[in-house]
Amino acid sequence: MILDLERFQTQAGPRWSSLESLLVAIEGRPDRRLNPMEAEQLQELYAQAAVDLNRVAHGALAPELRQYLERLVARAYAELHYVPPTRSELWQPRRWLRIFTLFPETFRRQSRYFALAVLITVLGCALGGLAVRYDPAAVDVLLPANYLRNPVQRVHEEEQGKNQDRHSTQSEAAFSAQLIRHNIEVAMLAAALGVTFGIGTALLLFENGVLLGAVAVRYTQQGFGLFMSAWLLPHGVFEIPSILIAGQAGFYLARVLLRRREDRDVRQSMREWLVLIAGTAMMLVWAGVMEAFFSQHHEPVLPYWFKVAVGGAELALLTVYLLLIGRRKTDAQADNRLPAENK
Amino acid sequence: MKDSQPTRWATTAELTIATPEGVLFRLPLAGPASRLYAMVLDIAIVLGTVNGVGLLVYRIFAKAPGYGVMVITLAEFAIGFAYGALLEGFWNGQTIGKRLFHLRVIDQSGLPLRIEQAWVRNLMRVFDALPFAYLVGGLSALSNPLMQRFGDRVAGTLVVRQTPLVAPGEESWTRQKYNSFMDYPTIAMKLRRAATPELASLVQDALRRRNELASYARREIYRELATYLQCEVSPFPDELVEMLSDEHYLINTAGVLFGDQRLSRVHR
Do B40 and B143 lie in a common domain? Predict the structure, then answer.
């Protein structure tokens, strides 16, 4: 087919302009919704532009016109096939508050990845603990910071209030923000490392476990088990599970990537990953506040039994939240939201 | 893959999408350099915003700088991630840097990206930024035909170039009153059949940039193009070519390639 470009452009030009104006109007709307008349008009103009593109691609040497029409058709195609989120999805605060129930629901749905994260951390803990227990030389390697190697000095300093400069409300506030930021970054990295098919996530959790096990055994060996529990539990009962849940998100991502070709609903899969990260971030905000404002106060300001009790109460509440919130929904409802890979 | 889904394939520079209705179109992919420039600009905007907010917060909390540090630390962190995710999610796949450099993030099936995808690709920056200066993300983009960093691969998105285009206007060579090449319709037809779109664009660009080229460069380029066309593509008779300058040769060639596609003027 040979095309008279001049005549073709003169005839088709007005409808390309109409399509372009319509697209500019739609693309300018945040929710990108079409009314029925616009949808009909867009469908018609898109079909005509597609035919025009086909004629130019096969009937004329007109690279610029072809490029222009391709761009126009691509934009119209995108608007026609895109299903925009409803207005209520975007702007209703109630919808955003659903994260508080979505998080435990997602946590339970993907609990096998949490179990894997726990297993790897426990293995790391065991290795760190055993190394410190049976090989004194390992202490210098596993616990590079002096305050971790020498609990006696640290406990003495803390109990004598030598770090009181950190205990003004203002410095506690600044400290809590730094903790929150650092911990969320580490958690996000654990979740993102799932892209290495989970290997990076596993290494990060294992390293974390080794350090935790080594510190626990070192402090307990030297008779500071109660001090350590009181020091770590009030924030650790949120901080450690949140890193485990970040690891859960990482392993979940690895699974999604491995099965992406079979997965029929990638969008839903990635939403689960995002919900786990959002939940982790919420937990770490609380952990950061507790670590800065509560954990750093020792006897005689706060009795150790009281701090341990607070930690225990927090753990109980967290367990109830993660295991029970959202359970009232029927199994059928829950099944409907399952991503394809779990069906 | 389901039947209703578009098929796609990519070369190093573009992604071709075939829609279920049988429409075929190409999207030009954004190269690493333009993405880097856009990112540097975005980082500058984020740092500027954070410092602006910082000054304001320090004034408000002048008597309690600890709270100021807290607000700044958290605001810097939140703005860093939310800037990209919210702008891309709600502003047609573009941040300010991307808009200025004519880039856009889209779903890899050619559709607009969704807010979840925007969050995923921006949260994955913690991995792509490793170990420094986005080395992991950069290597990932360079090694991938769709030029996706890991965040894009996970979110199923890609970055395309979106330079504004207008419908091409009429060029001077399509309005020639007389084109001596049209006196040889067989050779003209051969030229049109043999010329690839790339060669045709080359001739067109050389003529359009006539006044941008230094005279010696113009002479050299026109001579090389005309010699190539005459020797390798479609040899017009020597007695005609000898009378034409290289520039005139190219104008006539463009007239044949882009002029009235029916060659009707031959018979006028």
Answer: yes
- Give the pLDDT band of residue B261 (cuts 50, 70, 90): low
Cα atoms in the 13 Å half-sphere on the side-chain side of A83: 2
pLDDT at position B168 over 50: yes
Find where tokens 């990638």 sit: A266
Domain, as residue range, for B127: 32-161
State the smallest CA–CA distance between residue A187 and chain B in angstroms: 10
B258 closest CB neighbour out of A57, A61, A78: A61
User: What pLDDT score was predicted for residue B151?
Assistant: 92
Tens of pLDDT, residue by residue over A229-254, are 888 888 889 999 999 999 999 999 99
Is B8 a domain residue?
no
Q: pLDDT tens digit string along B18-44?
A: 887 788 888 889 988 899 999 999 999
Identify whether B20 is part of a domain. no
To the nearest whole Å, the CA of B165 is away from the closest chain A CA by 6
Domains: count for chain B? 2
Residues sharing a CB contact under 8 Å with residue A161, sequence separation 6 or more, in sequence order: A167
Closest A-chain CA to B110: A78
Provide the shortest C-alpha distance from residue B253 to chain A (in Å): 12
Q: What is the ipTM of this complex?
A: 0.83
Stated pTM of the model: 0.79
- Per-residue pLDDT tens digits for B101-154: 999 999 988 888 888 899 999 999 999 988 888 899 889 888 888 889 999 999
Please check whether residue A340 touches B, CB under 8 A: no
Last residue of one domain, picked from the residues B161, B194, B215 = B161
Residue B118 lies in a domain: yes
Q: Do A6 and B174 touch (CB under 8 A)?
A: yes
Between CA B33 and CA B159 the distance in angstroms is 12
Do B154 and B181 sit in the same domain of this protein?
no
- For residue A181, the chain B residues in CB contact (below 8 A) are 73-74, 77
Average pLDDT, whole number, for chain A?
82
**Which of B60, B107, B126 would best serve as a mutation to test chain A binding (most A beta carbons within 10 A)?**
B126
- Domain shared by B37 and B118, yes or no: yes
CA distance B24 to A46: 13
Lookup: tokens for B65: 């700088």
Domain ranges of chain A: 5-90, 100-342
B3 Cβ contact partners less than 8 Å away, ≥ 6 residues apart: B20
Rounded to whole angstroms, the Cα distance separating A104 from A225 reads 32
Collect all residues of chain A within an 8 Å Cβ-Cβ radius of residue B257: 61
Q: Tokens 């840097």 label which residue?
A: B97
Nearest to B127 by CA among B163, B88, B153, B164: B153
Is A179 exposed, middle or buried (CB count within 10 Å of its CB: 0-12, 13-18, 19+)?
buried
The verdict on B107 and B219 lying in the same domain is no
